[in-house]
Structures are given as structure tokens and as C-alpha cells.
């Protein structure tokens, strides 16, 4: 198997109302590249939120008493803390310079996924309101424009418990199942797999993150070509990747 990662270069800075799918198609045309059947398009959540007008004006936020208290305990800006509270369904852990929460989508991550990078000073981008819906809309436009069989992943960069560093993860998907259950298949020694499930969407998002970068690379979308996902066609969204609360062994 050979998998190719193609950064979509030449996309302009994204603003509210922009059509992400059209920006991707135009950028690819500028480089002489075309989408092919089986391509998976991974898109950074920040540009999706910006296109949807999902921007937080931190300077316009009046922090609550709870936010002020948490700001003292964490050392974070009170306005940012208030924004985190607004995007969270539950605050799980706080400490010096960190807040771990569960977002309204069900993701457990730092700062409720709010990002202050790649936006103007005083602004921040939360995760898209409905990442699966965003992925579906982008996929629909891409398929109509190209006639190709495609899939879309909306990605974010998140830290992990018990390990240093951040990696790309999927927060929204369209066209493919994010989880591959391989139970019942056999290993190299003929033994039947009992519990193996592969977080395919996360692995693809992590691979794309290597091309996107985290600073001024200016590559908000990546084409993954060559990964065989025909057996994973689905429209079920990201939910299969989220561990149910009753199966969470790490939260109190």
C-alpha cells in the first residue's frame, strides 16, 4: 500500500461566508491537481469555524464570577475562561495554565477546543457548532463539483492524557466510518482478533497534521490519496469514536 499526502496550497485567508469546498477546488486548479476517486480531504477546524462566522470576540466578553475564580486558579485570561465555560458541558480538571472540559459535542479536550492561533488579536475560534454537518456540506459540494467518490474529515489538534505533545484528531467526518472494528479477523498467527478497533479517522487526521503544520505553514487542507476505505463507507458521523461515559475508566 502507498499513501500520498498532498497539501492544498494557495488557499487565501478564510473569512466569514467563504465556501471551503470552492476554495479547495480553486486552489487545486491553481497547482494543476485534481481530486480523484477515493481521495479523503482533511480540513482544519479553524478555517471551517471562520467560514461559518463562528468567531469569539474575547474583548467583548464580560467574565462571570465563576470565570474570574477559575482565571485566578489557572492563570488564564478571564475572558478566555468565560468562553471556555460557554463551549463546555462539563469542566473536568483545572490547574495552573490548563482547563480540561467536555465540549457540547462530547469531546474531552483542553480549553473546550478554543483556538487563539491564526486569527486576529482579541479573537478566538471555537470548534464548529456541528462538525459532522460541516463535513457533510463540504463533501456534498465537492462531489457535485467533481463527480468523484470522496470523504471529508474535519480535524483539530489536541493533547492526550499521559503523553506529551499534540496530535491531529478527527472532530467531524462525512463519507466514511471513523472507526474500523476488526473483531473476528485473524492475525499473522491465525488467532482471531477479539477487541481490535482502529480509530481510522484519527489516524488519517494525524497524518494530515504533519503536512498542515501548527504555525505559519498556511496549509489548512490536505488530500490523502491511496488509503483503501471502501469498506468504511458511512454517514454516521464522529459519534462512534466517542467513548460512552459509563465506559470511561479515567473520570471520577
From TrEMBL:
Catalytic activity: oxidized coenzyme F420-1 + GTP + L-glutamate = oxidized coenzyme F420-2 + GDP + phosphate + H(+); oxidized coenzyme F420-0 + GTP + L-glutamate = oxidized coenzyme F420-1 + GDP + phosphate + H(+)
Gene3D superfamilies: CofE-like, CofE-like domain
Protein residues bound to a divalent metal cation 1: 115, 156
Keywords, in A-Z order: GTP-binding, Ligase, Magnesium, Manganese, Metal-binding, Nucleotide-binding, Potassium
Residues the entry annotates as binding a divalent metal cation 2: 157, 214
PANTHER family assigned to the protein according to its UniProt record, in alphabetical order: COENZYME F420:L-GLUTAMATE LIGASE, PTHR47917
Name used for this protein in its record: Coenzyme F420:L-glutamate ligase
Designated gene of the protein: cofE
Amino acid at each position: 500500500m502507498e499513501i500520498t499526502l498532498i497539501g492544498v496550497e494557495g488557499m487565501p485567508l478564510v473569512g466569514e461566508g467563504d465556501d471551503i469546498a470552492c476554495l479547495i477546488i480553486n486552489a487545486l486548479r491553481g497547482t494543476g491537481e485534481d481530486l480523484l476517486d477515493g481521495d479523503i480531504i482533511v480540513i482544519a477546524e479553524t478555517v471551517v469555524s471562520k467560514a461559518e462566522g463562528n468567531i469569539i470576540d474575547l474583548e467583548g466578553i464580560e467574565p462571570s464570577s465563576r470565570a474570574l475564580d477559575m482565571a485566578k486558579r489557572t492563570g488564564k485570561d478571564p475572558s478566555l475562561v468565560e468562553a471556555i465555560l460557554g463551549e463546555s458541558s462539563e469542566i473536568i480538571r483545572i490547574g495552573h495554565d490548563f482547563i480540561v472540559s467536555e465540549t457540547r459535542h462530547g469531546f474531552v479536550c483542553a480549553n473546550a477546543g478554543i483556538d487563539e492561533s491564526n486569527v486576529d488579536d482579541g479573537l478566538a475560534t471555537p470548534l464548529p457548532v456541528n462538525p459532522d454537518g460541516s463535513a457533510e456540506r463540504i463533501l456534498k459540494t465537492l462531489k457535485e463539483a467533481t463527480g468523484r467518490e470522496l470523504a471529508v474529515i474535519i480535524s483539530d489538534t489536541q493533547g492526550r492524557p499521559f503523553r506529551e505533545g499534540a496530535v491531529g484528531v478527527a472532530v467531524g467526518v462525512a463519507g466514511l466510518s471513523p472507526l474500523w472494528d476488526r473483531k473476528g479477523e485473524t492475525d499473522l498467527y491465525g488467532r482471531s482478533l477479539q477487541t481490535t478497533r482502529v480509530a481510522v479517522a484519527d489516524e488519517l487526521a494525524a497524518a494530515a497534521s504533519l503536512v498542515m503544520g501548527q504555525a505559519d505553514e498556511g496549509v489548512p487542507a490536505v488530500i490523502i490519496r491511496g488509503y483503501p476505505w471502501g469498506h468504511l463507507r458511512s454517514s454516521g458521523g464522529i459519534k462512534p469514536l466517542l467513548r460512552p461515559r459509563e465506559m470511561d475508566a479515567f473520570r471520577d
